[in-house]
Amino acid sequence: MSKEIKLALMYRDMWQSSGKYMPRVDQLVQVAQPIVDMGCFDRVETNGGGFEQINLLFGENPNTSVRQWTAAFRKAGIQTQMLERGLNGLRMNPVPKDVRRLMFKLKKIQGTDISRSFDGLNDPRNLAYSFQYAKEGGMVAQGALSITVSPLHTVDYWVSLADQFVTLGAEEICLKDMAGIGRPATIGKIVKGIRARHPKIIIQYHGHSTPGFSVASALEAAYHGADIIDVGMEPLSWGTGHADLLTIHAMLKDAGFLVKDINMKAYMEVRRLTQTFVDDFLGYFISPKNREMNSLLIGSGLPGGMMGSLMADLESNLKSLNSWRQKKRKVSHVTR
Fold first, then answer.
1. 307 pLDDT band (50/70/90 cuts)?
2. Cβ atoms within 10 A of the Cβ of 148, count?
3. Which CATH topology does 6-317 take?
4. Residue 68: its pLDDT value, please?
5. What is the pLDDT of residue 289?
6. What does the pLDDT look like over 66-93, one tens digit per residue?
7. Which end of the chain has fewer CB atoms surrounding its CB within 10 Å, N or C?
8. Residue 290 or residue 176, greater confidence
9. Domain coordinates of the chain in residue numbers?
10. Could you give the CA distance from residue 181 to residue 123 in angstroms, rounded to a whole number?
11. Gyration radius from the chain CA atoms
């Protein structure tokens, strides 16, 4: 019997990785039902790191926004997930333990089912309380392996790290390849190793497409036991974001996996709405370069979310620098 592979739409990360900003809550609510109507998603990433802080910039209450944004998914039985930064919670600096504990309880009440917790250092000690507090708050605790490539980061290293996460309370494991530098064969071996040690645990693969490995990596992950593949969709797929839904769906189906059909009428509506959000004002913060893949990033391993923010900032900085050079009568302009 063919194995079923589920798909998760990274709607939060699509915006984070393409250019830092996000739609307003009225726009998110507008696109939620068409995403449901697509019929192919079992999970949607709705909130978490970066996303909720930007609510504040719009003058919106992120706690209210999350409730409204997740409502259609809750009603349809689609799981929602958020990204959580371990010791930093949703922020970029450490958060007191009592605040973190309360955060998980509130996010569950607000409609978020799964907490994907990661630590850039892959130090299990930095995630122990995240797993504990997520479960106490009624959420699913997912531990993320922040994939990197070095002589030290062997297949055994990653499988052992997954073991430590499970011992600390993680109920699911995510291969979080935020820079997309995980080599496909190695990704498959990591999934196979985790599956052998933990036959019943949910394994989710998350890969950015920046250097071009992610499509092959998704297939290798599926072949070796992954349950869920994260995808993006037009107009915010590829580049620093994620492989596109249509490509991953067609690939998995051709390989013999069972995947839910896509309602293409709803797909085109989600695509249309997302484009209108870009055209509204968010396009000002999205560099066209972020839609491109670049194999030179295999070496640097810069995460897609970081690239989205960095490129948006560089655009403004370069304009300011060149304006200064023009005033100082320096003819040549600085380019990236």
1. low
2. 17
3. TIM Barrel (3.20.20)
4. 97
5. 77
6. 999 999 999 999 999 999 997 787 777 7
7. N
8. 176
9. 6-317
10. 20
11. 20
CB of 85 closer than 8 Å to CB of 91: yes
Measured distance CA(328)–CA(18) in Å, rounded: 33
Listed range (120-129, 228-237, 251-260, 293-302) with the worst mean pLDDT: 293-302
| pTM of the entire predicted model | 0.90
Cα separation of 334 and 301, whole Å? 24
DSSP state of 118: -
3-state secondary structure of 327: helix
Taken in order 246, 250, 251, 253, is the CA torsion positive or negative? positive
Cα–Cα distance for residue pair 226/252, rounded to 1 Å:
12
φ/ψ (deg, to 5) at 72:
-65, -35
User: What mean pLDDT is predicted for residues 242-254?
Assistant: 98
Distances (CA, A) of 184 to 226, 268, 305: 13, 30, 21
Q: Under a CB-based contact definition with an 8 Å cutoff, are residues 272 and 255 in contact?
A: no
Please state, in angstroms and rounded to a whole number, the distance separating the CA atoms of residues 285 and 175.
28
The per-residue pLDDT for 160 is 98
Give the position of tokens 């200064």: 324
Strands (E), the chain: 6-9, 41-48, 79-84, 114-117, 140-146, 172-177, 202-207, 228-231
pLDDT of residue 57 exceeding 60? yes
SS3 80: strand
Cα-Cα-Cα-Cα torsion 246, 248, 250, 255, nearest 10 degrees, comes to 180
Look at residues 211, 198, 271, 288 and name the one whose alpha carbon lies nearest to residue 243. 211
Tally of helices (H runs) and strands (E runs) in the chain = 13, 8
Question: What's the average model confidence in pLDDT over 328-333?
Answer: 60
